[in-house]
Amino acid sequence: MPCYNDGEYIEQAINSVRSQTYNNIELIIIDDGSTDPNTIITLNKFNNTDIILLRTDNTRPAAARNAGIAHATGKYIMPVDADDIIEPTYIEKAVKIIESNKKIGVVYCYADLFGDRTGRWSLPNYSLDAMLLDNVVFVTSLFYKEDWEKVGGFKTTMYHGMEDYDFWLSIIELDKEIYQIPEVLFNYRIKPKSRTTEFMSNAEIVKQTYRSIYNQHPKLYEQYTNEYAVILRDALIEQIFLNRALQEGIAILDKLKSIPLLKLIIKKYIMKR
Prior knowledge:
By secondary structure, the protein is of the alpha/beta class. 48% of the residues lie in helices and 17% in strands. InterPro entries: Glyco_trans_2-like, Glycosyltransf_2, Nucleotide-diphossugar_trans.
C-alpha cells in the first residue's frame, strides 16, 4: 500500500484490508516521502503494530510498490492504494480463482467509483483484444510475486503513469491469462486532482506514453498483428461516428439558440453552470 500524503483516507483502506475474510495477509505500507503532517502522524501510529511500515524518498508509485513487493514474503501480491477500498471477500475469491488454474496469472473484478464521482467504473470487460488497445485492468489485482520478479517489476521510468498497463502486458507475455471476477469487489476513489487526471489532460503525453508501451512489447504486438490492426480500425470507426454525432449535436444546439425562448433557457442554464 503506497502512500503519499493520503493520511485523510488511509485508515479506511487499512480497515478494508483488515476486514478480509482471507486471513493470511501481510500488510506493507510504503510511506513514499509524505510531507503532509497529518499523514505523517497517522502513519507513525502504525509503528510497532502488525503492519510493516517502510519509508521511501518520494520515488513515485511504481518504485514504492516495487519496494513493498520486494519486502513481501507472500506467494501472492495485491497492491491497494491508500485512498481506495476493497470489499471483504475480494482476496479470498481472487486466491481461490488463481489457485484453480495454473494458466491464470492475474485476477481482478468489477469496480465502483466513490468520492467526487459515484457509480460503476465503466471499464470494458476483460478480453485480450481490449487489452491490446488499452488498459482495462486496474492495479488492485492479485498476481504471483514470482511473476513480478520474472518481468522485473513495475517500470519506474514511466514518469506519467500507465506502469500497470505495461506490467499486465508483461504478464501476458509470460503466457499467463487474466481473469475478471464478475462482481464489484473494488472501490476506486475519485479525487478533484490525481495523477490520472493530470495525465489525461495532455494529448501529447498520452500519445508518447502509449507509443512507449507499444515499443516495450514488440513480440506481443507482432504475435497479434492481425488482431491489433482490426481492433485499431474498429476503434477509429467508432471515433469517427462519435465525432460526427458530437458535431451534429452542436449544429442542432446552434439552431435552437436562434429561437428566442430556448435562447433564454440555454443562457440561464449556462449561467447556473
